[in-house]
Amino acid sequence: MEDINLRKAAIIGCGFVGSASAFALMQSGLFSEIVLIDADKDKAEGEALDISHGLPFAKPMQIHAGDYNDIRDAAIAIVTAGAGQKPGETRMDLVKKNVAIFGKIIPEFKRCGFGGILLVVANPVDILTYTAAKLSGMPENRVFGSGTVLDTARLKYILGEHLGVDSRSVHAFILGEHGDSEIAAWSSANVSGVPLHDFCEMRGHYNHIQAMHDIAESVKNSAYEIIEKKKATYYGIAMSVRRICEAIILDQKSVLPVSHIQHGAFDIDGVALSVPAIVGKSGIEAAVPISLNNDEKEALKNSADSLKQVIDSLNINSYN
Question: Which of the residues 178, 205, 208, 263 is marked catalytic?
Answer without folding.
Answer: 178
